[in-house]
Amino acid sequence: MSATTRTARTRTYLMCRPTHFDVTYSINPWMRPEKPTATELALIQWNELHGILTGLGHDVQLIDPVEGLPDMVFAANGATVIDGTVLSAKFRYEQRAAEGPAYRDWLAERGYRVHDAEHVNEGEGDYLFTGTRVLAGTGFRTALRSHVEAEEVFGREVVGLTLVDPRFYHLDTALAVLDDDEIMYYPAAFSEGSRRRLEQLYPDAVIATDHDAEVFGLNAVSDGRNVVMAAQATELADKLRDRGFHPIGVELTELLKSGGSAKCCTLELRGGAGSTEG
Description:
By secondary structure, this protein is α/β, with parallel strands linked by helices. The protein has helices at residues 39-55, 99-109, 144-154, 192-201, 210-214, 234-242, 253-256; strands at 12-15, 59-62, 79-82, 85-88, 113-115, 127-129, 133-138, 157-162, 175-179, 182-185, 206-207, 221-222, 226-230, 246-250, 267-268. The strands form five sheets. A three-stranded mixed sheet has the order 2-1-15, with helices on one face. The chain has a three-stranded mixed sheet with strand order 3-4-5, with helices on both faces. The longest helix has 17 residues, at 39-55. The radius of gyration is 17 Å and the shape is globular.
C-alpha cells in the first residue's frame, strides 16, 4: 500500500503517574517480582510519554495515584469511554480490583455517564474503539459475557476476538487502532477463528513481526497520524512510515516489567462528559 497523507486529531487522555509503581505480584508472564524495579526510572520514562502526548497538542488529564495500587499507572485498564458514556472496569484479579472504583469515581465526578459493569472487563485493555465498532478481547481477562454488556451500553457493534498466547493477555498488547477502521496486529496472538475475522474486516492491516510484538510495539497510541510506540519496534515503525504514519519511539522498558507500554498508560476520553456525540 502506498503512503497516504494522514491527519492527526486532537484527543483527550487520562493518565496516572507511576508514583507507587512496583512489581510485587505476578498476574501475567511479564511480571517477575524477583527482578528489581526502579520506580524513579518508571517515572522518568512515563514523563517522556506524557511530554510527547502534550507536545503533540493532546489534552492529558491526570488521576491521582493510590498507594497500594502499583498497576494504577495503566490507565487504559480503568474504564472504556465512548460518546461520553463509561463502562467501568471490573478486574479479574483481586490485586487490581480497587482500580475500577477509583477510575469510575473520577469519571463520575466529572459528569460522565457511568455504567457499573456487571461482568469482568479490563477497560481499554480489551475494548478498542475503531470509530465504527468495538473490537473486544477475551481469553485471559475480559469475560465473554461482558461483550454483550458493552454492546448494550455503547450501542455499537462489538466484535469478539479470542486471545490464545498468555504473553498477550489483553487485546491492546496484540492489536492497535491506527485510524478509523485501520489497525495493526499480531496474528499469532489470536485464535484461528479470530484471525479469519480480522483478515475479513481488515485485509490491509499492518502485520507485526514476532519481535515487534514481543517488545510491545502494538501497545501504541495513535491520533490518526502520530503513533507513539515502543522504540524497539523498528520494523513496525518502518511499515507505518510506508503507510504515511509518523511513528514516535518511546522508552518504557521499566513499565514493561509489569506488562505495559504506551497504550496501557493512556485512557482515551471520547465525547467528553455528558456528550451525546456519535
